[in-house]
TrEMBL record, chain A:
PROSITE patterns to which the protein is assigned, alphabetical: ABC_TRANSPORTER_1, ABC_TRANSPORTER_2
Record carries keyword Cell wall biogenesis/degradation: no
PANTHER family: ABC TRANSPORTER, ATP-BINDING PROTEIN (PTHR43335:SF4)
Family (UniProt): Belongs to the ABC transporter superfamily.
SUPFAM superfamilies, per database record: P-loop containing nucleoside triphosphate hydrolases
One Pfam family matching this protein: ABC_tran
UniProt organism field: Jiangella asiatica
GO MF assignments: ATP binding; ATP hydrolysis activity
Ranges where the ABC transporter domain occurs: 6-230
Protein name, UniProt field: ATP-binding cassette domain-containing protein
CDD domains on file: ABC_BcrA_bacitracin_resist
InterPro entries tied to this protein: AAA+_ATPase, ABC_transporter-like_ATP-bd, ABC_transporter-like_CS, P-loop_NTPase
Length: 312, 311
């Protein structure tokens, strides 16, 4: 068994004039939770569709579980929920899963355990069309879980869930990874990705901007300093941390230094006659990194941001 | 069973003994898809509505109206000018091979078309094709499963039609004190085969248009306008312009209508008694052309399903 589950090489999809996905090269490793992070319309779903063989790439290639995307060897071992659950509205949730179980050639008892894992067993006999958005989403995840696939591809799995449902879903995903299943999930919720993903790929405007562990993306911690007079404090800080490691902020300084340096910095500042108002360590959130990376492309409020590509 | 590769094991083990997905071969994938599609199609009220409407239409127009007309001595629009003896003869079991396919080219065909269009077209709007195509069977295997399920339903409908025709004619024969004369098995088989071809062709047409339009409503609308209006209009134009006739003579409706007509459903002297039943082509060419349409519809639909992006 290879260590990489998904590899793409300059995967590109063009719809007419619009470049939906451009030269995306990413790697998902065995047993990890891979977060695919980007604003709405960034190309996340299109990339996932290409990995599942639903959409043909315009150029570039991909390998999923050692097979080409869409080949039975890849599809049969992948459980997927893509852009909202698609089920027969007139069938009950349970019967919908039974139909999928027939397609997969797994027994009906697999349906029961899948329903229980997403907490739908009690409502399993209700028609799919009567389900709330969150219940439909959970049925979609149950269908992806069916048949114990090696790879789970979940497109915005917490869409439409209430806070409790979101927490349950995150726990479920972490559990699945604990069992050795590889999970590739897309999200526009940075906190979600920060919480459960081992590695993330950041995509905006169809391009993969970065791929790394969450910790690496966030980088080391920084020290925030508020002191008077500022120019004197700046000079001291640059002496302690180095010229390039200090940034002047609106209300103080930001130093690329670990927490351990705080006492020494304080002594240096006091020695130079600077009045210290505050020194505190600060960790960058994934959100800060994300906005830095996507710049104006994402704009404030990633979740509500307009599709980037369509505005061009 | 423990010595084989995964591919062979997937084919030979009982489906899903382990509860884990296995990689299916093309045939195993198609069989699994057919089982899955039959499960969801037979639980679909729309399918039962369509099938019941056809069976009811067939019973009413083939037997009930004609028998009432015969019994009361009145004439209806369908029986005008037909001698009452020949009217009764048509209602006997021995006449089943002649009248069996009479309603299929137009009414039965339209209903089978809707069935096929619903079976494939609605999956795009619901997003179920997307779900189905990520389950394991390859695209062709999954689509083949849908085709097999639709074919099973069409076969069931033709069988039910035969059962109803037999029951109705036996009932009428015994009510009228007539001795029951069964048709020859050969003639009956020919007629049932023609019924399968006609119904199958229209269902395959629905499947294709459902795939083309990706919308059941548009597919059903187009199909009905085609089979009920456009072909008839073209035939009308064809009577005036000789060039158009070459085209209208080989349309699907002409082929299936002529097939029914060749079996004797066109009982009236002018040959156009039952709507949709024609005598444009002889039986052999009509059967061949109908079969060719059936195959062509299926192949084009399969190619589209295999190649196209599924949104």
């Amino acid at each position: 068994m290879t260590n990489t589950i998904v590899v793409t090489d300059r995967l590109t999809k063009r719809y007419g004039e619009r470049l939906a996905v451009s030269d995306v090269s990413l790697t998902v490793r065995s047993g990890e939770v891979y977060g695919f992070l980007g604003p709405n319309g960034a190309g996340k779903t299109t990339t996932l569709r290409m990995l599942l063989g639903l959409v043909r790439p315009t150029s570039g290639s991909a390998t999923v579980l050692g097979h080409g995307p869409g080949e039975p060897g890849a599809v049969a071992r992948t459980g997927a929920l893509i852009e909202g659950p698609g089920f027969y509205p007139y069938l009950s949730g349970r019967d919908n899963l039974r139909v999928m179980a027939r397609y997969q050639r797994v027994p009906d008892r697999a349906v029961e355990s899948a329903l229980q894992r997403v907490d739908l067993a009690e409502r399993g006999d209700d028609a799919f069309k009567s389900y709330s958005l969150g219940m439909k989403q959970r049925l979609g995840v149950a269908s992806a879980l069916l048949g114990e696939p090696d790879l789970l591809v979940l497109d915005e799995p917490t869409n439409g869930l209430d806070p409790g449902g979101m927490a349950d879903m995150r726990r479920l995903i972490v559990d699945l990874a604990g069992q050795g299943q590889t999970v590739m999930l897309s999200s526009h919720l940075l906190s979600e990705v920060q919480e459960i993903c081992d590695r993330v790929g950041v995509i905006a405007g169809g391009r993969l901007l970065a791929e790394s562990t969450v910790a690496d993306l966030r980088g080391g911690s920084t020290l925030l300093v508020r002191a008077d007079p500022v120019d004197q404090a700046l000079a001291v800080a640059m002496r302690v941390a180095g010229d390039d490691a200090v940034q002047l902020l609106d209300d103080g300084l930001s130093l690329e230094l670990g927490e351990d340096w705080a006492p020494e910095l304080a002594r240096a500042l006091v020695g130079a006659g600077v009045d210290i108002r505050e020194i505190r360590p600060s960790e960058r959130s994934l959100e800060d990194v994300f906005f830095e990376m996507t710049g104006d492309a994402a704009g404030p409020g990633v979740g509500a941001a307009a599709p980037v590509e369509e505005e061009r | 069973m423990s010595t084989t590769t995964t591919e062979v094991a997937a084919v030979t083990t009982a489906p899903g003994r382990t509860g884990r997905r296995t990689v299916p071969g093309p045939l195993a994938g198609m069989a699994a898809s057919a089982r899955a599609e039959l499960l969801r199609l037979r639980a679909w009220p729309a399918v039962w509505v369509m099938v019941s409407v056809w069976l009811l239409l067939n019973l009413t127009f083939t037997y009930v109206f004609n028998y009432v007309a015969y019994a009361t001595g009145s004439t209806s629009f369908a029986t005008e000018g037909v001698a009452s003896d020949s009217l009764l003869a048509e209602l006997m079991p021995s006449a089943i091979p002649q009248i069996f396919t009479g309603g299929m080219p137009m009414f039965g065909g339209a209903i089978m078309f809707i069935l096929g269009a619903l079976a494939t077209g609605s999956g795009f709007g619901w997003g179920t094709w997307k779900t189905v195509l990520t389950q394991g069977p390859g695209r062709l295997a999954a689509f083949g499963g849908t085709l097999a399920a639709v074919a099973t339903i069409v076969t069931g409908v033709v069988a039910a039609t035969l059962a109803i025709d037999v029951a109705a004619s036996v009932l009428i024969a015994s009510a009228e004190g007539q001795s029951i004369v069964w048709p020859s098995l050969g003639a009956l088989a020919e007629s049932v085969g023609a019924g399968l071809l006609i119904s199958g062709m229209w269902a395959a047409g629905g499947v294709l248009v459902g795939v083309l339009t990706r919308s059941p409503a548009l597919a059903v609308g187009l199909g009905l306008v085609w089979s009920l209006v456009v072909e008839n209009l073209l035939r009308g134009v064809g009577n005036l312009l000789s060039g158009v006739e070459y085209v209208t003579n080989v349309l699907p409706g002409t082929a299936s209508g002529s097939l029914a007509g060749a079996l004797g459903a066109a009982n009236e002297p002018d040959g156009d008694g039952t709507p949709g039943v024609l005598t444009v082509l002889d039986g052999g060419p009509a059967a061949l052309l109908t079969a060719a349409y059936l195959v062509a519809f299926v192949v084009v639909a399969a190619v589209l399903m295999r190649r196209r992006d599924v949104a």
